[in-house]
From TrEMBL:
Listed GO MF terms: DNA binding
Keyword annotations: DNA-binding
Domain HTH tetR-type: from-to ranges: 1-37
Gene3D superfamilies in the cross-refs: Tetracycline Repressor, domain 2
Originating organism: Caballeronia udeis
The protein's name: HTH tetR-type domain-containing protein
InterPro entries with a match to the protein in the record: Homeodomain-like_sf, HTH_TetR
Length: 168
């Protein structure tokens, strides 16, 4: 709380009036992150309709990395806070839903069940990209980020083809 008060230029007593416990601070921050994430998903979904499949793959792969860099405490709070497992489950569900909506905006012919399966695979690709770019202890090699991008682009290109594309 002391650090928050110092960084915000607020007296610590004022903070305790609004957030008497660390858990309430964590919950407020997680709500802020959730609101920001929803705005980001809306922007991605808007872009998805006109993006190429390769651009969509790159946008999705970059999203976790971007959020992690902007909000470094988000992952820690989601995993280790008093309500960590709840925050983690809610966050996963929001991300899968955001990816699913982006996929359907890009490829309206996708059925919901198919889009959900693809969204889950993309979550794991996005997590791998975050590990490769943000975790200094994750296994890594020169060119690994490029290879993951190639893989995700090819996967989405194959999975998002419409039946008319396949018949050509």
């Amino acid at each position: 709380m002391k650090e928050i008060a110092e960084r915000s230029g607020t007296k610590i007593g004022s903070l305790y009036r609004f957030f008497p416990t660390k858990e309430l601070v964590a919950d407020a921050l997680m709500q802020l992150y959730a609101d920001e994430l929803e705005l980001r998903w809306q922007a991605i979904i808007a872009k998805a309709a006109t993006a190429t499949t390769e651009q969509l793959a790159d946008i999705l792969l970059g999203e976790y990395v971007s959020m992690r860099k902007k909000y470094p405490a988000m992952l820690t709070l989601a995993e280790h806070g008093a309500r960590g497992s709840v925050h983690r489950q809610e966050g996963r569900a929001r991300n899968i839903d955001g990816i699913l909506r982006a996929l359907r905006a890009h490829a309206p012919h996708l059925k919901s069940a198919e889009a959900k399966s693809i969204a889950i695979v993309m979550v794991y690709n996005m997590r791998a990209m975050m590990a490769l770019t943000c975790d200094p202890f994750a296994p890594n090699a020169p060119g690994a980020v490029r290879e993951l991008k190639v893989s995700a682009r090819a996967y989405l290109r194959q999975r998002l083809k419409s039946k008319s594309d396949v018949m050509r």
